[in-house]
Amino acid sequence: MVIASGLALVSFGAILWCTLTARPVAAPAAPRNAAAPNPWVLAASKADAATGSARRASTEVLLSLAADQDLTPVPAGRIDPRQRQIKVTVVHTLRMAAQDPLLGALRQGGGFPGTLQQVTDAVFGAVKVDGPGLAPTTRDAPVLNTDASGTLAVFTVTLLRQVGKDALLTLDFAAPNAFPLIVQRRTISVLPGAWTVLRQDGITPMREQAEWLEFAIGATPVVMTLAPDSAGFPDVAEEQDFSWATALGVLTAVVLLVFLLRSLGRGWWQRLPNRELVIGLALAAPTLVIPLVARDWSAVAYVVLFVAVPALALRHAGRMLPTSPPWNTRDLLVVTGLGVVVGLGMLIWSWLHGQLGGQALLTGGAVAALAAAGAAVGFSVDLGVRPVVVRLAVLSAEAAIGLLALALWLRALLSGVYPPDSTRLVLALSWAMIPVAAVAVATKQWSRGAVVGAVAVSLLVQGWPTEWLDTGSWSLAVPQAVPSVGVLRLDPIVRGVLGLLLLGFVMLVLRLRRLGGELAAVDSQVAESTMIAVLMVLYITPSGITTLADINVPLPLLAITSVVAWATARWLLSGPHVAVVEPTTQEQHRQLVRAAIHKRLLLVAEQELYRVGRGRLGSGEMSMADFDQRRHALEAALAKHGRHPETAFATAAACTPWLNGVHAFTIGLLLSLPFTIVYGLPQGVDLTTWLFDARYLLTLPAFGFLYGYFYPRVRGTQPMTKALHLTAAALLTELSGYLSTLAEPDIGAFDKAQVAGIVVGQVTLVCVGLGLFWEWRIMHLADEPWARVRNLRSMRSLAAPTLALALAIGTTAATSAAGTTVDHILKGDQVSSGGGP
Question: Which segments cross the bilayer (predicted)?
Fold first, then answer.
């Protein structure tokens, strides 16, 4: 024991010695300015005073509406027909004497075209126009005109902007950035076109007309604001005390919260650990907005999200599960082995970047590992079990290497120079404890597969594999642009919060799976509330933002589609439906279907008797006695089946609600996949944002899941009648998302008809296709041919699939003919900007 304790101290001392002797890693050198020196500034310094004063510079700015040929290079998805597309043409002219050294620099090119912006900004100053850019600024090659009086150089710059119909436009004329000034005084002319100069600061015009404003400036920046001619300004701006958008957002949030609470059930709230979990999360939630209001205190939010919440989740799982985790020594060896692999990566980084020399690192690591292994052998040798002693020795050596890597990483972290993605890796592994505990509680057991899956999902929440495998992110911490979605900067804490929201949604689905294992879930209010909550979450679409009065926290305004999804789902499940005798076995289902088919045959035979009997009785081919005999025989046969309508095709077919729901969801998803041609493939910088962008692929399959899960309760008595009710509910929900856009007077009727056609075609194809599949599935489970209920040679029987196919073809035609407006409406207001995801 003394020797073992001494070896443990030696191992700890080796780790401590490596940490203390480690040197701070030098910060990466600032990137050098690769831009070549301005050739015009160098040439201007060679000119005498008389030559410099002879230069004359002027700038002419022409504003006009962009024509179709101007917008040719602009991606179609960026152009919003509800806004103005503006073309700003800036023409710079510079007159120079024949002996001016600037002419030589201009004719030699001086790095053109790369230095064109550098040259124009140095001589004339930058001209900036507010509003989102439709395309990069373009600069034409300079044009030279030489005559006896000197040389005139013309530089043309074109900018494309997109602003609101009545939005003000700001022109910013910056001062030239060359010192000393190449041109002492320059003249600027503005031709506003369809705009009127509203404000001008620091300008004394030489010429001032409605279509022309001319002034002269030197090194003073000038800002000018213009208003469109069609804009009028009311004397009093009416403030609306009531906002439909805010009210709708509050209503959606309240309804969703109510259904989330109801989905848990009264029994869930009666358990003390659950109430403690809710209280803990409620206390932690306010701290997560700290980075939005006080960035200096962001560390508190990181500690809460990546330390306190995982600890709370693990504690809750430990109290809820009846057994402790079944981890053994082999599991510990695997985990520590993976930790050693990561630790070796950190040790290699420390060696490559000079934090610790190679010899010192090898010596310290070897001493720490061997001493730790020897200490483990000394402490466990009395057990007398060789496999246990060997495993403890290996485990101790791995732990020593991991501890050394962790100590060096903390030392690098304190010095501010460390691998950038190393922090995200640690945070992701810590955050993974939350889904591990959540899945354990949901499945009532600890699972090794769940741990592996949770770690993988956690890494995907913090970034795509391409981002993790970027070699630069494991080198030195250099400034990098943080991707963003809307107003959210996707730093690790925002990604973690979005991951929690995704995890909450997954927990709702797992709850549906647990409840759906029994047929009683069809009539369960808890299952119904959970299903409606899932639908509402899928249909939440941020529509604008608002800000709280006291703190600058952006909050999304929830779209109407979520509320409509709630209303239509309630309508589907709350309608009148006949009492259904549910079969408990496949054999009972088979007997019910055969009896229903027999009854349908008798009904058809009775109708045929009355149809044929009219003619045959009149012609004398059939006597009245024969007619009554056949009629009484059919009525007697029908009486054996009872007077109540047959409900064999309105049952769950002896399957669990979850199984039915999964089948319906799968068919709905397969039928929705072709519409990726219309909406495009999902995009995102991590798993959460990708799934959020893929909601359009999941909304209709989610309605299909509701159809299968609660099939006996859905309005209607047959698969197709239920599918038609589902079509009405889904169509109303899908179209509600386009109501505000379709009400725009600036959008043409043809474009609106195309959008409506695409949505109607998609919904009809999915829902009618699901109804046909469900009809086939019921017959397949009863071992009966589908042709007994769906005659493929009958036009009446083919009416529904023909309608769905016709609408799908119409949708395809509308998609191929869809223009910029339709594409913009379907895909939303997505205008790309530099640096965004």
Answer: 242-265, 277-294, 300-318, 330-352, 358-381, 388-410, 422-442, 449-465, 493-510, 662-682, 694-711, 723-743, 755-776, 797-818
